[in-house]
Amino acid sequence: MLVESRAPADPVVLFRRWYREAERKGALQPDAIALATADARGGPSVRMVLFKGIEGGRFLFYSNYESRKGRDLAANKRAALVFYLSLTRHQVRVSGRVSRLSRAASTAYFHSRPRGAQISALASRQSRVVRSRAVLEKAVAELDRRYPETVPLPADWGGYGIRPDWIEFWENRADRLHDRLRYVRQRQGGWRLERLAP
């Protein structure tokens, strides 16, 4: 049960606790998160991406800068994400401002990925219309031959970090009388803790 008096002062502490619990219980891909963005005119879009950790208080993910999400984030720096940890009956929502990670951080992560994923990122103009799957497979084969050792980081690919304005923790309870606690970032530093009606 979520109880304000026992909640940590830093929401990242609670998030890490819930995330580790889901991993321990064998959750299928707890790193799969829903990322919501909006374009310059406010048109919404949501898709699943992979969560890649927290650094400096920012929730990290990686993508193609020219993808739909990349174009949205270039026009509107605000985004939200949701973790749904079904095995532990938890949900975590994060909303805030997004910024790109450094080129060095993006390069380090890119080269930690399997070679096939590196080649695919280089071959794909994400979110663009392609004539057929065969076109993609041909591009992958050509790039695989061209770069037999190190695959270069694509110029249009890299990391993002969401610095939360607020983080909400939701825990399933009987009769839909769920627990919801929200941490709101304060201008002077620290967080304000609020209970929300379910």
Give a brief outline of the structure.
27% of the residues lie in helices and 35% in strands. The chain is an alpha+beta fold.
What does this structure look like?
- With about 200 residues, this protein is α+β, with helices and mostly antiparallel strands.
- It is built from 5 helices and 9 strands.
- It is elongated.
- The protein starts with 10 loop residues before the first helix and ends with a strand.
- About 20% of the residues are buried.
The value of Rg in angstroms is: 19 Å
Task: Report the strand count.
Answer: 9
Mean pLDDT, nearest integer? 95
The shape is elongated
Number of H- or I-type helical stretches: 5
How big a fraction of the residues is strand?
A: 25-35%
Q: Based on helices, strands and strand pairing, what is the structural class?
A: alpha+beta
Largest sheet: 9 strands, antiparallel
Distance between the termini: 14 Å
Secondary-structure element order, N to C: HEEEEHEEHHHEEE
- Regions with little confidence, pLDDT below 50 for 5+ residues: none
Q: Helix content range of the residues, please?
A: 25-40%
How are the SSEs placed, and which strands pair?
Elements: H1 11-24, E1 32-38, E2 44-50, E3 54-55, E4 58-64, H2 68-75, E5 78-85, E6 90-100, H3 103-110, H4 115-123, H5 133-146, E7 157-171, E8 179-185, E9 191-195
Antiparallel strand pairs: 1-2, 1-5, 3-4, 4-7, 5-6, 6-7, 7-8, 8-9
Helix pairs in contact: 4-5
